[in-house]
Amino acid sequence: MNHKINKKRKRGAMLTERYVVTVFGINTQYYTDEFIAYLWEESADDEYNNSSIYVTALIDARTLVCGKNRGCDLGDTAYVISCLRNPIDTPDSEDYWDAFRRIILSIRVKLDNPAMTVTIQNADYYFFLKES
Length: 132
Hints:
This protein is α+β, with helices and mostly antiparallel strands. Helix content is about 30%, strand content about 25%. The chain is built from two helices and four strands; from the N terminus they run βαββαβ. A four-stranded antiparallel beta sheet has the order 2-3-1-4, covered by helices on one side. Helix 1 crosses helix 2.
C-alpha cells in the first residue's frame, strides 16, 4: 500500500498542540534517564486516575550549552519532554493543558524545583493505524 501524505492538501489532518517542557540544572548522576521516565509515568498515571486524561511523553536527554562565561551553571544536560495532544482522546485543549501542567508541577517538586521552560506549538496531527 502507498501511504503518502499530500503536503499541499492538509485535508484529513487534525489541528492540535505540542507541549514541550525542558528541565535544566538537575544532578544527572542521581536523576538518571530511567528515573525521569519513572517520575513522568508515575505522575501521568496519577493524573489519569484523577482526570481520565493520560499525557504520553517522549523524553530526550540533550546536551545543554548555556554559556558558562556568562554565569550559567545549569549543567550540561537538559531533559526535553514532548507531548502531543491527541484530539480524539482529549478533544478539549484546556483540559489537556490542565493535566499536563499538573504533571510537570508534580515532577518539578519531586526533582527539587529545577529550572524549567514550557513551549506550546500548534501542530497538524496525522496518524496511521497498524495494519495486519
